[in-house]
Amino acid sequence: MSSKSKLRYAVGAVAIALVAAGVAGVVPVPFIHAEEQQEAPAPAQAPKPVPATVAEIHNQNITRWSSFSGRLEAIDRVEIRPRVAGAIESVHFREGDLVKQGDLLFTLDPAPFETEVARAEAAVFSAQSRLKLATTELDRGNELWKTRVITRTVLDQRQETKQNAEADLRSAQAQLRSAKLNLGYTEIRAPISGRVGDIRLTPGNLVAAGANSEILTTLVSVDPIYATFDVNEQALLLAMHQNGEPSVDAVQQIPVQLSSDFIGPDVIKGHVQMIDNEFNPRSGTIRVQAVFDNTRGRLVPGQFARLELGQASAGKAIMVAERAVGTDQDKKFVLVVNPQNVVEYREIRVGGEQDGLRIVTSGLEEGERIVVEGLQHIRPGMTVAPEVVSMDRRSMVDAGDEAKGDSRS
After folding, report:
1. Superfamily of domain 111-185
2. Is 0.90 topped by the overall pTM?
3. Which of 52, 212, 259, 409 is most buried when burial is the number of CB atoms within 10 A of its CB?
4. Dist CA 54 CA 8 (whole Å)
5. What is the spatial distance between Cα 56 and Cα 321, in angstroms, rounded to a whole number?
6. Protein fold of 66-74+226-309
7. Total Cβ atoms within 10 A of residue 114
8. What is the pLDDT of residues 39-67, one digit of tens each?
């Protein structure tokens, strides 16, 4: 076989081998590998930061308040009783009226007392006449004694007669004043300004006089008014703090405010009138009495009220929006945004509420940032894009309104 024939044979053999390999599935291998490369997933991308409304924590000057329940009391309470006996002639008020000191409440029949006044006036006139006669007789006796027309004994008798006449006149005048007082007592007037109660006895009834007589009505003062409540030791020490330490002299500076269903959303400010001199060993509380203005008469003695006792001087505290505080079973927490804008879970302890913000007693430091809106959408470990607002009531309300608008859209 020639060399050219051998070359053609070799090329043909290679071609046959390639065809056979294609039938056996050898050739498509590079194409299957390309398909596998196309189906391989792309590398994972980092999640985008979640928008979050945050606020920076600052210490604020506040007055911390402690809340109590108390009862209102009238400063003055008077039982209206007659000072003279007689028959009730008329009543000059309506039950529940507000009256002023000196207003006429009841009138007793004055006729018997007018008679006594007339009799006393006659007795005074008679005593004056006797004194005038005795004075004249004594003057004449002095002239006669100079010439010894009368004896010394007669002159002494005339002096005694004049002295007796003077005493009789003073007695008669005292009787007249007493009769006029009794006549005046037939007009029973309000001894204080306040609100009258129910009418116990109506016109026509006979009444006795004195402390054991029947009560005609009651009268309680309205303005100002007392509120009495019991305060525990811790709250009292907090209220009496002045310049960082408890001070007895701070009592006059302790603020107190009152609210009640009777006055709606209004709050009435007052001041501490008295702190009792000892704690009750059973309850561990001490009685505190505060006084409030009641010019409009909306507060009624005997009703319950809500009292808040503040500090004598303001202190510093961290305050956060109520909506920024979450509840985890029996714990309170906030979501802190660290310098890398990563959210962290932080347990806190909270105190009272003031100006729409909650006092934080532990768990936060000044300068830290917390999430104040949308806690339900943010989890610890997330990276957020913070939108900073100030930690005050107005900003919190605005932020809340915006969040509600976003949720509705």
Report:
1. Helix hairpin bin (1.10.287.470)
2. no
3. 52
4. 84
5. 11
6. Elongation Factor Tu (Ef-tu); domain 3 (2.40.30)
7. 15
8. 555 555 667 888 888 999 888 877 777 88
